């Protein structure tokens, strides 16, 4: 097998500096909107005392997922023996690092007191998923960095070992993220042992979708050749991951719907929840999962770059919707202080709360994606991340 | 590409192992710390608690809430979604059988023995004092709001606007700055100097006098006796958090 | 090209490194305050809860220690309480802030704890 060559990009064209400027501006949006929230108070966001976690947390969970997904893809060649994906392993590991950094930014800048950043490292509460995740996330960033270094220096055995541990840690990190919600036993729609594995399935599918888009985009813009077959096989992989996601959603909701105490919660999500119900059926199941899955698994459309790209975009946005549906509706539903009584109060007990995304939260979320893209285009100029060309190689 | 069976299995096993090891380890630490507790029925002895007789609680009486707001410098944000509530009046009616009149009870932080809020706090800002009071250390809170998501009783509020201490009513209680989470603390500054919480004092002075505050002391005629009587009940006792506020007459 | 970049990087690094000094000299105005050593004013004369010289160096540690003890351990010593300070040091602006401004630090205590800027009138009214 021919050895893949990696080169830096030239990065002196007008287009490069244009992209540099645009993504740099977007990246600035995140800290600026966080500063705006910090200076004015959290009342400028859509988050309230009824819905304490909003879009920033949705984005954080989403970015962590995409990071775990792309790291697994990066290790595909060395750990799972999928040699054909070897050319992408550097850029996938780079994206994994950038995505987790953006995710950490999303979480920390959303705190009421981001200036107390170091406190989670001084104090440790082993029962708190946040506390454990603080350690896991930092270890993950470090390990991804070492893994990337090993890939740059062609440390065959070590690279494989690091790859295995990085994948293991990625799975652990994302299980931990799922457990943030899954362990909340007082809210019916959160509490589920399936949340961790379901998070990982969605992480893999969204990570693959993101890689398809990034590979296609960067190779096209830098004028490098990528074998379309590679894109198609990634798309097929994405289709398989989507099936797993669908399976988890099916099992989870069916199990929940069986218990009478959950009737109200489940019917809110599935039937009479207004925008949440629409998001679930149309946004998530239809546009986010089933249609992209049908596109990539269909032998005809699965072999068309245009269709595959459309499917990847739908899936990428579909997983944002999935995270939104996991994070928001359980908080919108009222807590059952008395399961057998109707309650009202000045604190809006017993009422369905409303969460309206504010403009500043949207800027914040776009800014986080800007951080990832800006970091990416800077890093591919500084280091040889991209292969000169990516050919599809038949397995031995 | 063909995802052949061996590779798929390898992937599956790695994923499954990671998924299980993580949460399992953490959950085990919860259970083991529970097993270490002395297996006896006196874990509440000498802890502060409250018994509230609902029959004496008129739905239109708001004296405990007003007293609390005054005592603890609770700011008024004039927005029901952002307002801070340490104690609130909850009005309730039976859901499955007709009930002509609405009844009410004051709900606050129940200072659970196994508080989910303290368990999820990443910096131990929420902690349990030796006398059973669950407190938020606002010097340490980072404002991540995990505790608000985890609390079953909606006892917690986030300070979403800046509060000016110059406008505070009670100079002995600090206001809370933007970005931290706050909740009822049983008026810890009052009980440390031997006074009852402000809501209990107000309930006896202006309300129906249904609130009774004290320690679960064995040789006492106070709240332990009422709880032993069997008519007192906790809210959502099924969750196992073991609240230290009991209600009579729900 | 690379030499130029290196020089720029070193200069940038030192600017970042000395940022606190630059910031403070711009905001506090080192040139203005260097000559005027602060003279904190105290209306009420008498003995403090600790030696004056010790307090000058350690009041922040005492406050922090008391804070841990009070909030987390429930040990309330009225004498050491932060609310007790204001019974003698009634004018925050002329006592606390005079030094704090001079050395350019902003303690967060008074963002929450109530300590009126000019005297205790409000507290006295409260009774």
Please give the structural blueprint.
The complex is a heterotrimer of chains A (396), B (250) and C (127).
Chain A: E1 6-7, H1 14-40, H2 55-74, H3 76-79, H4 89-110, H5 119-122, H6 129-152, H7 156-182, H8 195-221, E2 225-226, H9 228-258, H10 263-270, H11 275-297, H12 305-327, H13 329-332, E3 341-345, H14 359-382, E4 386-387, E5 389-390
Parallel strand pairs in A: 2-5
Antiparallel strand pairs in A: 1-4
Helix pairs in contact in A: 1-14, 2-4, 2-7, 2-8, 2-12, 4-6, 4-14, 6-7, 7-8, 8-9, 8-12, 9-11, 9-12, 11-12
Chain B: H1 5-36, E1 48-53, H2 63-71, E2 87-94, E3 103-108, H3 116-120, E4 126-128, E5 134-136, H4 146-150, E6 157-158, E7 181-182, H5 188-191, H6 198-205, E8 211-215, H7 223-228, E9 232-233, E10 245-248
Parallel strand pairs in B: 1-10
Antiparallel strand pairs in B: 1-8, 2-3, 4-5, 6-7, 9-10
Chain C: H1 2-17, H2 19-33, H3 52-73, H4 82-85, H5 96-103, H6 109-112, H7 121-126
Verbal overview:
- The complex is a heterotrimer of chains A (396), B (250) and C (127).
- By secondary structure, chain A is mainly alpha-helical.
- Chain A has helices spanning 14-40, 55-74, 76-79, 89-110, 119-122, 129-152, 156-182, 195-221, 228-258, 263-270, 275-297, 305-327, 329-332, 359-382; strands at residues 6-7, 225-226, 341-345, 386-387, 389-390.
- Chain A has a single domain, classed as Up-down Bundle (Formate dehydrogenase/DMSO reductase fold).
- Chain A contains 14 helices and 5 strands.
- A two-stranded antiparallel ribbon of chain A has the order 1-4. In chain A, strands 2-5 form a two-stranded parallel ribbon.
- The longest helix of chain A is centred in the middle third of the chain and has 31 residues, at 228-258.
- Chain A is globular, with a radius of gyration of 21 Å.
- The model of chain A has no long low-confidence stretch (mean pLDDT 92).
- Chain B is built from 7 helices and 10 strands.
- In chain B, helix 2 (63-71) packs across helix 6 (198-205).
- Chain B is an alpha+beta fold and 250 residues long.
- Chain B is globular and about 70 Å long.
- A 4-stranded mixed beta sheet of chain B has the order 8-1-10-9.
- Chain C is elongated.
- In chain C, 59% of the residues lie in helices and 0% in strands.
- Chain C has one domain.
- The mean pLDDT of chain C is 81.
- Chain C has 127 residues and is mainly α.
- Chains A and B meet through helix 5, helix 6, helix 7, helix 8 and helix 9 of A and helix 1, strand 2, helix 3, helix 4 and strand 6 of B.
- Strand 3 (341-345) of chain A pairs antiparallel with strand 2 of chain B.
